[in-house]
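task queued by scheduler; priority normal; single chain, no ligands, no partner chains; default sampling; output format set to structure tokens
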Amino acid sequence: MGNILKIVPESEVLENMTRAEYANWRREQLESLRPLTAVVLEVEREYIEFALDLCDGNIVEAAIRLGIGRNTLYRKRGKPGEIANAQ
């Protein structure tokens, strides 16, 4: 799976930053936050692709192993290259 979230322990950050650098870092982190639904959709799609790879592309087998229906797998997978649209 891809690197969706990069989490750095604050203790490590604080050790090497001035107060101003830390304030800028926190602001950048806050600005990079995405809605949770978008993150969940991205993780879900990556996991579905992972399952499909393990099942050699067999949609039915992947759906069974994921505990979802074939149509649900198609819907959650989305079109290739499509960006998750969280609303």
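post-processing summary
- The radius of gyration is 18 Å.
- Residues 36-54 form the longest helix (19 residues).
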